[in-house]
Amino acid sequence: MAFPSSILPGRAMEIAGSAALVTGAASGLGAATAAALAARGAAVYGLDLESAVSGAAAPDGVTLLATDVTEEDGVRDAFARIADDGHELRVAVTCAGIAPSARLVSRQGPHDLALFRAVVEVNLVGTFNVLRLAADAMSRLPPDAEGGRGVVVTTASIAAYEGQVGQIAYAASKAGVAGMTVTAARDLAQHGVRVVAIAPGIVDTPMMAGMPDDVRAGLAAKVPFPPRLGRPEEYAQLALMIVAHDYLNGETIRMDGALRMPPR
Known about the structure:
seven-stranded parallel β-sheet, alpha/beta
């Protein structure tokens, strides 16, 4: 169901001419969000790993930058590039993430500690790194009529609430993203910067595309309604609605078709 633009007033109409930063922008949720923001007139800077950026075609209005979200210097360089180009950063959306599967204890022994650290480093620390630097950049911008300076949309997951077998590291990292949302919003209230998280369910991303058709169909059948996989464009639509809705702040919004994940 498409919503008419007339019910999306305010900030969504104001991003034209401003800058938006999207992480994980070379594919999946990030690519869809970067394209949607560019279509609204934003100058979009998309961050992703060199291996992803080198093979990606950026749509009009999107500049892809090879950046590891876990590295402070690289992310600072991306924000410096935005400022050097003469843009005001008003929107940041963090979509970069990884989702390896491993049980807490398996035939191989206990969960690999390095793998757990890697997942938390990308999904949680990487999100925090972009959040803090984006908020700092936004805090120095002139406010709008209501004192707003920008919005950061982060990506949690329904695994934060109902992590399945093998998702211990992923669930912990995404629970961290959800958990810091209201605190971040409260910390940044004095600067007029909003923070909202989206918790997607099963979305048809490139990672899902590699699964057999019967597995994909089985996953889709678990969703109460609509009984299908989510679409990256629906995540992008929700991100734009959050940008447009000034009174959404400090909340984690599930986008899952009423799905509650079973243990496996």
